[in-house]
Design goal:
The protein has 250 residues and is α+β, with helices and mostly antiparallel strands. It folds into 2 domains: 100 residues, no CATH class; 113 residues, no CATH class. A 4-stranded antiparallel beta sheet has the order 1-5-3-2, with helices on one face. It has a 4-stranded mixed beta sheet with strand order 4-12-6-10. The protein has a 4-stranded antiparallel beta sheet with strand order 7-11-9-8. A hairpin with a 2-residue loop joins strand 2 and strand 3. Helix 2 runs antiparallel to helix 3. The longest helix is centred in the first third of the chain and has 20 residues. The protein starts with a helix and ends in an 8-residue tail after the last strand.
Length: 250
């Protein structure tokens, strides 16, 4: 009897492990809204915030949503109909949630499925040689300070001023690429979260041009111990073959 009970317990325990490890195949709750046109130039753009199984995006083009879903940094890595990159043609608000705390990598996969379901997106993947600026450590190594895990994350991002108490290097590269309108990819090899306080002179439209601030290159070197270098490598890209502008019913 003890042997039978032990066997049954082992089977139940194994089944519980399998159930616990089973990844969700779609978001539990999700909405994809086509936003109305706006005349005001100020938009509250959120290119993708994912935390504890919850995803939010606002004022994003389809191209930007796809960049989050497929972990692409630059607009040059997405091609297709002109409207997918135009806020005048279509911009979206996306809110979704999973049943549990699903990791970001799986959250991206769920976002791919959500876009395929609601906007009937069909893509194909290609590897293309592209030129870009690589964010790397300076010759003396980085000057970055690791984030304090006991403090809640705080951030303030505007062109010419990037402040974050818990920032990853891929996120820093993405912010710089967005503000400076060039392809910048993380090649630092640094995998942690860091305290970032970067101020520099930018030519970004609408930014305050404070001539007392250093150039981006000097600021990266002096303030963070990083630099940019030109590279050309085969990179992942996607081509949108078909997509709807108006989402299906949520």
């Amino acid at each position: 009897m003890k042997t039978l009970f032990a066997s049954q317990f082992a089977v139940c325990l194994a089944a519980g492990v399998v159930l616990a490890q089973a990844a969700p195949t779609q978001f539990e709750v999700a909405t994809v809204k086509l936003l109305p046109p706006v005349s005001a130039p100020l938009l509250r753009i959120n290119l993708g915030n994912y935390r504890a199984g919850s995803l939010t995006m606002s004022d994003v083009t389809l191209s930007e949503a796809l960049r989050f879903a497929y972990e692409l940094t630059s607009e040059e890595q997405v091609s297709g109909p002109d409207w997918i990159k135009s806020r005048d043609a279509a911009r979206y608000e996306i809110v979704a949630r999973t049943a549990g705390d699903v990791p970001l990598a799986q959250g991206r996969v769920l976002t791919q499925k959500l876009l395929a379901d609601r906007l009937k997106v069909v893509i194909r993947k290609e590897a293309k040689p592209l030129s870009f600026a690589a964010l790397v450590q300076a010759s003396g190594g980085s000057k970055l300070v690791e984030a304090d895990p006991n403090r809640p994350p705080q951030a303030s991002f505007v062109p010419g001023r990037i402040i974050g108490s818990s920032t990853t290097m891929p996120n820093l590269a993405l912010l710089l690429a967005t503000f400076e309108h060039q392809m910048i990819l993380d090649r630092t090899g640094l995998t942690g979260r860091y305290q970032i306080n970067l101020e520099y002179l930018t030519e970004a439209p609408g930014a305050v041009r404070d001539q007392t601030k250093p150039s981006l290159e000097s600021a990266l070197q002096d303030q963070l111990g990083l630099r940019l270098e030109s590279r050309r490598e085969p990179l992942d890209t996607i081509v949108v073959e078909r997509a709807l502008q108006t989402p299906t019913d949520n």
